[in-house]
Automatic annotation (TrEMBL):
Predominant location category: nucleus
Native source organism of the sequence: Piloderma croceum (strain F 1598)
A single GO molecular function term of this UniProt record: actin filament binding
Residue numbers spanned by region Disordered: 1-55
Protein name in UniProt: Protein FRG1
Protein localization: Nucleus, Nucleolus
The organism's place on the tree of life at top rank: Eukaryota
Family assignment from sequence similarity: Belongs to the FRG1 family.
Biased composition (Basic residues): 8-23
Entry's Gene Ontology cellular component terms: catalytic step 2 spliceosome; nucleolus
Stored Pfam families: FRG1
Taxonomic path: Eukaryota, Fungi, Dikarya, Basidiomycota, Agaricomycotina
Keywords: Nucleus
InterPro entries listed in its UniProt record: Actin-crosslinking, FRG1
């Protein structure tokens, strides 16, 4: 019997650090169910592939799958031929002993099946860069031709992801047209970017790694908490903004003017009395 260690088939990317799993303590069995669920979430593998719930969670390594029939396909990049390839996922499951997984259970098995999603902070658009080769950006021209042969990003390399009610996603380009899978002569499938509406061909299942989804959730939480923080109100500037005419001239009534004059007069009297007392004290010690 061979004692060689079984090699993991899990896809890893260059530069990623492995996270050691935390062992459970003996007393964990007695803790409540809510605490156990919280611990399970904390111990969840950050490299697990999950579905994003909003467009902001589409970031980092991204797996894009289309539910084509009879076999689902994923959007690949062939770095040798420098072109996009729609790869049938069923080709990866040819063994008779293993059951073909559902489309939602699919995960990438090659780096060529992974795109790296980046975005400018605060921008609704993303850039999709190949995960293999020299890093080319997915782009679409005004005629709907989709390619991945540009090393620099521009308007044609920008995509706006849209999460649909059923959890699937669509990608809109700068021309407000949608990315789609189109069948051409001979039954060959290719990507296009000139669809006016979202139909079956424009819907994709998108998966990202759990740690990037968590990162997006934490950023959104910080942003929301910041909006709820108490803000300081400058009464003077507020009055000038909402109760002023011309160059910041405050609007006051006749009664207000009388009160202001009275306050100024009383203030001057008080200052005079203080000055008088200070002078008397200084004279006393001289």
């Amino acid at each position: 019997m061979s004692t060689d260690k079984v090699r993991s088939t899990k896809l890893r990317f260059k530069g990623e650090k492995t996270k050691k799993k935390r062992k459970r303590e003996d007393g964990d069995e007695a803790s409540g169910s809510s605490r156990r669920r919280k611990r399970d979430e904390d111990e969840k593998d950050p490299e697990t592939w999950v579905l994003p719930e909003n467009p902001n969670e589409i970031r980092g390594p991204t797996f894009i799958v289309h539910p084509s029939d009879p076999s689902p396909i994923c959007v690949n990049f062939d770095s040798t031929r420098n072109r996009i390839v729609l790869h049938s996922l069923d080709k990866d499951w040819k063994t008779e002993d293993s059951e073909t997984p559902s489309i939602l259970d699919r995960t990438p098995t090659e780096v060529s099946q992974v795109w790296v999603t980046t975005r400018v902070a605060g921008s609704p658009t993303v850039n999709l860069r190949t995960g293999t080769g020299e890093g080319k950006f997915l782009s679409c021209d005004a005629h709907g031709l989709v390619s991945a042969d540009r090393e620099a990003r521009g308007p044609q390399e920008e995509w706006t992801p849209v999460i649909l009610p059923d959890g699937m996603a669509a990608f809109m380009n700068v021309y407000e047209k949608y990315l789609s899978v189109d069948e051409v002569a001979g039954g060959t499938l290719q990507l296009r970017g000139d669809s006016e509406e979202v139909g079956f061909g424009e819907r994709f299942w998108v998966k990202v790694q759990s740690k990037y989804k968590t990162e997006a959730t934490e950023e959104e939480k910080k942003k929301t908490d910041g909006l709820h923080d108490a803000t300081k109100i400058d009464e003077t500037s507020t009055n000038h903004i909402y109760q002023a005419w011309g160059a910041g001239r405050s609007v006051t009534s006749v009664e207000d003017k009388k009160e202001l004059k009275k306050a100024r007069k009383e203030g001057r009297l008080a200052e005079a009395m203080l000055d008088r007392r200070a002078k008397l004290k200084s004279d006393r010690f001289c």
